[in-house]
Amino acid sequence: MEPTLQGRLHTVLGAARQTLYYSHPDRRYLFEPAACRIAENPDTALQHFPGVGLSFFHENQHAFLNRAAPRIEARDIAGPWPATPSVTVLEPWFRLNGGTNILTELNLLALRRLAPEALAGPPASLRWLARQAIDGHFILPSLRFGVVVFIGLGAGLLSSEDHDLLWEAFQVPVWTQWRGFAGEILAAEAECRAGLHVVAGNGIFESAGPAGRLHLTSLENLRHPVLRLDTGLAADLQSGRCECGLTTPRLVGLRHYEEPRPAARAMAASA
Ligand SMILES: [Zn+2]
Fold first, then answer.
1. How many domains in the chain?
2. Under DSSP, is residue 216 helix (H, G, I), strand (E, B) or coil?
3. How far apart are CA 161 and CA 147, in angstroms?
4. Considering the domain boundaries, does residue 81 fall inside one?
5. pLDDT band at residue 92 using 50, 70 and 90 as cut-offs
6. Which of 182, 190, 217, 247 is geometrically suited to a Cys-Cys bond with 72, CB 3.0 to 4.6 A?
7. CA of 101 to the centre of ligand 1 (A)
8. pTM here?
9. Smallest Cα–Cα separation from 199: which of 241, 235, 249?
10. Ligand 1 centre distance from Cα of residue 183 (Å)
């Protein structure tokens, strides 16, 4: 039986409690009230935990390590393709299951030899590759299923210019997946192309304020649990049934978070 959201929240809280960061006196008293709130309203159970900045998390990973957690499992690509293409993944930050070719360094010769039918990787790697193709340094005639872009955790976003670049280079569809620290899929673009559908049970996204500042709690990453990670991104979180039939919330208008201007803040305060 799949664990419920409540069950997953208890698990992630238990994992966080094991870490150096959350066992600090400033934070460890937050766990009991949070655990009590889970049954009543799981969506707000974590609201009293302070957000954790992305760069702070990256620089202090040791403080978020939960030694009791099992080793992080390998992940599948889970591309939106009807068939099972031969996929090459460029510079992934997580482990992948067998059957997928991996290039930990960008190497055009090696890539050509692998003759991928689909590609995946973070924006920077794919952007670089597309430029190489446009500049005539290589061609990839085998590529026909599409490209999956991994975003999240400071990997950056794919701009509309990047979309154009990838199209010009490869002329295949491009799909975005939000991957967590352990490679878990937290949100992914679906057939509707109407934003990224949150993968139910894998994480909790919170979009706050008019600027849509996005915090994320992964319920899958028990090795480095982090509650309310400030993603540095912003989006509108839309619920209700989507035209594609999915009922999970969607991240719409994903963008880099920008601090509201002081004038806007003052107006909001006086309103
Ligand atoms: Zn949809």
1. 2
2. strand
3. 15
4. no
5. very high
6. 182
7. 29
8. 0.92
9. 249
10. 22
Residue 225 covered by a domain: yes
Cα(117) to ligand 1 centroid in Å equals: 25
Report how far ligand 1's centroid is from the alpha carbon of 86 (Å): 26
Distance 197 CA to ligand 1 centre (A): 7
| C-alpha of residue 54 to centroid of ligand 1, in Å | 28
Q: How far, in Å, from the CA of 195 to the mean position of ligand 1? A: 7
Ligand 1 centre distance from Cα of residue 249 (Å): 9
pLDDT digits (tens, 9 = 90+) for 126-180: 999 999 999 999 899 999 999 999 999 888 999 999 999 999 999 999 999 999 9
Identify residues whose C-beta is under 5 A from ligand 1, the ion: 190, 192, 194, 242, 244, 246
Q: What is the CATH number of the domain that holds 92?
A: 3.40.50.980
Q: Residue 95 and residue 111: Cα distance in Å, rounded?
A: 19
Residue 103: which domain range? 87-179
**Which residues, listed in sequence order, are joined to residue 90 by a DSSP beta bridge?**
103
CA of 243 to the centre of ligand 1 (A): 6
80: in domain: no
Do 209 and 240 share a structural domain? yes
231: closest CA among 169, 158, 151, 172?
A: 151
pLDDT band at 3 (very low <50, low <70, confident <90, very high): confident
State in Å: Cα 132 to ligand 1 middle. 33
Whether residue 270 is contained in a domain is answered as no
Same domain for 59 and 190? Answer: yes
